[in-house]
Amino acid sequence: MRSRMSSGGGSKTRGSDALRHPRDGELDRIDPLLRDLRAIDGLVERKIGVFYRRSKAFLHFHVDGDDVYADVRLDGEAFDRMKVTTRSEQRALVAAVRRAAAVRPGGAR
Q: How many angstroms separate the CA atoms of 35 and 7, rounded?
């Protein structure tokens, strides 16, 4: 699942759980994903699960109940939201991030 984020803020709710930034320890379940992201050249993890590319925020996570989502700037501008709960979803994110990281400013590879 991938959706474009607007700049309007707001929150998504499902049941009694609100989409929110993860609390301490909640990213432990995606540790293999975090290891894969840490290995990508050009990404810097400033806090656990918060990655920058150059001087701009590039990727961070949210949780909603049992699901984990990544907000990532694949085009360098707006955040795209991708579900990353399953290992298959995590592999898709890593592949997309690798493609985005290979593109230099101005669209050159």
A: 29
Here the tokens at position 27 are 């990213």
Q: What is the mean pLDDT of residues 70-84?
A: 95
Higher pLDDT: 106 or 55? It is: 55
The widest CA-to-CA distance across the chain, in whole angstroms, is 45
74 Cβ partners below 8 Å, 6+ apart? 80, 96, 97, 99, 100
Mean pLDDT of 93-106: 87
Q: At what angle do helices 87-101 and 31-38 cross, to 10 degrees?
A: 10
Cα–Cα dist 102/85, whole Å: 25
pTM: 0.80
Give whole-number Cα distances, 35 to 10, 38, 39, 83, 106, in Å: 30, 5, 6, 17, 28
